[in-house]
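Review box. Two proteins, two foldings.
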Amino acid sequence: MGNNTETSTYDVVVIGGGPVGENAADYAIRGSDRTAVIIEHELVGGECSYWACMPSKGLLGPGAALAAAAALPGARERLSGVAPEPSAVLARRDAITGGRDDSSQVEWAQGAGIDVIRGHGRIVGERVVAVGDRRIHAREAVVIATGSTASIPPIDGLRESLPWTSRDATNLVDIPERIVVLGGGVVACEAATWLLDLGVRELTMVVRGNRLLPKSESFVGEMVAGALTDRGVDIRFGTEIDRVERRDVADTGYGRLHGGPARVMLRSSGDILDVDEILVAAGRAPATEGLGLDAIDLPDSGPIVVDDHLIVSGHPWLYAVGDVNGRVALTHMGKYQARVAGDVIAARAEGRNLDSPRYSAFADHSAVPQVVFTRPEVAAVGLTEQQARDSGIDVTVADMDLAVAGTHLLDPGYSGHAKLVIDRTRDVVVGATFVGAGTAELVHSATVAVVGEVTLDRLWHAVPSYPTVSEIWLRLLESLR
């Protein structure tokens, strides 16, 4: 090291200052005299706070509220329209993201005893992270929590056209009249929902597979596709983009049109779509570029493989949590892993053994909850029927339309569906899926049932309140008697 190199030492060094990194640092030092630092090259608070979960739900909320009001006589008559007012929606989004100002997040970290260093962290040796000329040593652990980045498929002319990614869609400023959405997953479906709310006139979804939300139960994609089609979306299944042409391409900033109109040529049909913007929602890749993983003999691309303690094999001082380890790309599951990793770091620092279940991240194998905030809403946890059968489970299912007193009170024309996947041998629920308005609040009860391995005989005594949407639990259990 040269004489100008600044060095410092912390017990825990976290690369990545999103909610996952924040949780890992906090849990590793909370209630102790240990020290921690977060290294972040963008904004403390990460993808979720500024470019993903929070702004997307902010954009989706007004349309959902109007749809709920429009479903009820007495409220419907007071509505002047069923489309949100775009400028007010975008202003609310900006308030939720704080205008991408992370000062309050930095204040939180400092209040929790966590230092923040601005810059790009790079591993340069065992327990050593470089940020520019600075070297930071970790006594106990280095935690990688760098998340993931949007993938752009290798389609002729696509990258050169500077298409929107999820960051642009959640931070949109210009509302395109015509847009192509490439992909059929969660980001694509949620973005299509709020783009329609904000006044997009022509929206085409180009989906390589044969259904939306393909990792879910089949009825999920069918219901979401039906709702989008009813709103005028043109969904092209089994289709790929052959090439893209665009003039006057310009990096105008997040959420602004990145040039003139684009011409999108489709491979199978030969159709040509002229649009104002292209949104690529075709998956994400672990953000490992520039981390220096080759310095410690790890692959410098792809997910960082960890065990259930979130420790990287062969490197007992190194942890990887969240999207970057490739286990589950959901903020709440990344935060769960971070809590586990933080507890593991604390336990090892204090010489405690790791026998307790709290030191092992097992929920992200088979008990992952997720809500997709489309209309209809989708809430699910655990295994689908096909996943359970593929795992060798002796499966039985309870499967029915979601129609109880609580749903009728939400909307006389309510449309929804529910399904439980049951391990017949153990008599426990291993998966649950609900589609319909108000189902987001059902998923945690299902998560508790799956994680707790509550038998059906015991679940029979969990009485749902009347009249609520949760009464569907009773109907599902009755169908199994």
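Next protein.
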Amino acid sequence: MTIGIDQLDFYVPQFYVDMAKLAEARNVEPNKFLLGIGQTEMSVSPVSQDIVSMGANAAKNIVSEEDKKNISMVIVATESAIDSAKASAVQIHNLLGIQPFARCFEMKEACYAATPAIQLAKDYLANRPNEKVLVIASDTARYGLHSGGEPTQGAGAVAMLISHNPRILELNDDAVAYTQDVYDFWRPSGLSYPLVAGALSKDAYIQSFQESWNEYAKRYNKSLSDFASLCFHVPFTKMGKKALDSILTEDIDSETHNRLTSGYDAATYYNRYVGNIYTGSLYLSLISLLETHDLKGGQTIGLFSYGSGSVGEFFSGKLVDGYSEVLNVEHHKALLNSRTELSVEEYEHFFNRFDNLEFDHETELTSDQHGIFYLNDINDHIRNYNTLK
């Protein structure tokens, strides 16, 4: 009996800023953003969308009434926690109406945490054939206006239902993790924005990938020719491409080289228009690959997960026959295409309101967002959520 991803979905806020226009406003050559880091648009989170509401919105369409009876664990992976004690998984569990006898908690290790959450879910379900685990990766990436990291911001959530006999991706028993204590990106308690050592961060990412991939290939006697495609954690789309290029050496045959390169382009298409969503970035890339590339059941997908600080992991899964029938391509296209573009000035207002928790529902909630969860207000430090009718 196999275990893996039975369903998956994502949610991004209703607003975005055009990266070329942001570049011009920052007196930067637009191609530095469009080509240099490989980003075209960037999701902008209103105050009314935090990790709870985004996570619930990502999950609501893939969790049926029957699933709610069988989900016995909810895990939220995030580095944008809104409380130092109460787990956002508890609030999402409530919003979705999942049965009460379930474990709910958060996991943290920068952008990596969704991957150990999935591995934990897989191990947990090994002796529980009738149960399911809901894993949610939800984050708002924020570095500050006019900061060096500003063009690699974003917001969104990915939800994955882990179960026996999955309909999308069967997880293989072949993960290799690599841990190294390095200060490439970190956010000490009390700081609103992370601290980043840019050059070190890129080097640590690539080293982590190479170490985990090389060990994986050695342990399991694998080569790049064994994979239909690879997915990477993509804080910006050129980051994963640098890692991929580092192993596409001269001894790689042209067919494998071309296959993995074209697969990478497909796997980062959605990310290019969303930006960095931290823990969800790898899995948004997986959705992008599955929905924009020609793949077949039985093919193997390799995945590299990375979280600064740092932990990297390379693992794989096998596509299930008929996986495309479970995807919701039209919904995702509509979600991305129906967003509202903000001017740079409007984006800056949104950004400052988010920091100051200044609600503006008249601006942020529009009629075409009916059915979504949103943060309505905060009273006595208690967050109250509603559903837009």
